[in-house]
Amino acid sequence: MANVINRFEILSTRSGFNSAVRHVKGTIELVDALASKKNLSDLLQERASTEEIGAERVSALLRMLLLDKLGYRAISRNLNSTADSLDALAQEFSKWNAVDLVLSYHHPDLGLLIANPKSAEQLSAFGVLRKRELAIAYAGRFEKGADDLCAKAASLALDMLEGATPKIPEDFYKGEYARKAEPKAKAATAKIKAGPGRKPKKEEVQADAKAIAPTAATSVTAAKPVSAAPVSAPKVPSRMTPMYSVTVQNELFHNGNVEAWKRIIASYNARHPNLEVLVYYDGERITNLNALFKWGKVKHGSTIQFAVAGNDIQNVAKLQRYLIQGASHQFEAFLHGPVHNTLNLF
After folding, report:
1. 310 and 163 in one domain?
2. Which of 8, 13, 18, 238 yields a CA-CA distance of 20 to 30 A from 327?
3. Against a cut of 0.85, is the pTM above it?
4. Pair 153, 193 in one domain
């Protein structure tokens, strides 16, 4: 009896009941869309801009629609190596017309992410796939279910994520499940293109001395309160940019540089409250920027990396330009004004 009560507890409140009704209606709409042989990840990507799709709901949809309803094969694996060159894999997966594929990846910072691996944009949004993190490949043929070829496709897809270069059976290229053309992506999303650990192209980020020098246009010395836009409900799947590199130009990344970075990131967060700036050093995520100073290891020539996570990612080039300046001897430009005010940089 207690189990029955717990199972229906979410329906005991108006908000819980309405949430369940929306989930059921949305699931029925997805079932109808899947009947037209459209990839589940593509469908969820389209809905994410207008509808709240939490990670728990995505997990439920993967199991309900792909496994229970369509009978797809699923193979899971904790990756045995790190993968960062995903664009080339997407080009190969896009030729696998014999199967429909969906990949899920449990990102250590973002949680559950999904992608149609035949889409370079979606697959690259995973960022760097880290060793020992969980990845699951789903393969099938919509209403036809799945067979041994689908199971092999799921297994080979994970092998390739781990860096293997297996011989691909010719049967993978013959079929009716080529990816359907998708609508044009938003311009803001299209701007975020860079390889892992390298700087954006020169036209995106002018990292020379002239570009990072403070000017009247940037008004980095004027500290103004910034009213943050209202935070909307988080939407999944989230995206994460590739890693961008910032080389320390000061003799030591000291307390002044740390404070400059804090204020730059605070300004970015005030302008983009739904986005998160993730900072990494030596392969580890830094949750407390003070650690970069306390270690005493971050010196001239050291590389600090960052990425931005969320949806509708913007102003990454400008953020990198300011962080480059904040890691140089010009960091003082960001320290003027009242301590508790947010700089108006973005």
Report:
1. no
2. 238
3. no
4. no
